[in-house]
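ok trying again, last paste got cut off:
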Amino acid sequence: MGMNSASIATTVRPSRVVPFKAARWFYPAAGVLMLIYTIVGFQLFYFHGRAYPGREITPPIRTLVITHGVAMALWIILGIVQPTLVAIKKYKVHMTLGWFGVALAAAVFVLGLMIGVQSARYAPPGATIMGYTAKQFMAVPLISAVAFAILVAVGVWKRKRPMIHKAMMLTATLATISAALNRIDGLNNLYFGTFLEPLFGPSLFAVVTAGVLLLIRSVLIKSFDRWLAVGFVVLTAIALMIPIVARTSAWDAFASMLVH
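nice, full thing came through this time. structure:
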């Protein structure tokens, strides 16, 4: 009798192993990757209070640089927290925190524009950055900031369609991450001096990262993620556009107007 009871109990309450759904954790993991890029690229700034490659932060814009750095760090951290909340099904907290994210994105956008203009304004005469003059290089932060704002806006607009929302938010972060990647010499040395440098400018590894993430995501969900693919195409187009626009006379006139 005892054996029968035990058998019935085992049958009624079998042990269940909940499978680990790797696809659910793709976006939190991608956020962690963005954080690693940020820490490695901006380690001089966050840990030593200095600008790349070890110089003092330009005094007239020191407060602006620090404010932008803090805002960007918060955005990167939010890029881990928000998809993690979704992964653990804390949807209400995710939605509530999302409005803070909207305000933070607006701050990142405005500060990005300001830092782009002010960095060019206070650049030493004749200074070059990755082969660009200060006014030419201004195209990198300004166009990236505009792309960031547009992608975030689309993500917020499509917040009730998770596939689009998550893809656009990650792409928005990727649109700005070249600032960190540009400060990792080991990566830059892999393509500086090759045909890829004038083609992609400072954005090559942001595009490479987007492509790798698209591949991983598609494998995890066993289907081609068309919305992340859209983000990849947009990011590639921006990367190819910046070096062309930066060297035009129209951009020179526009940049001169902003600086002076």
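cool. DSSP finds 14 helices and two strands in the chain. The chain has one domain: 22-259.
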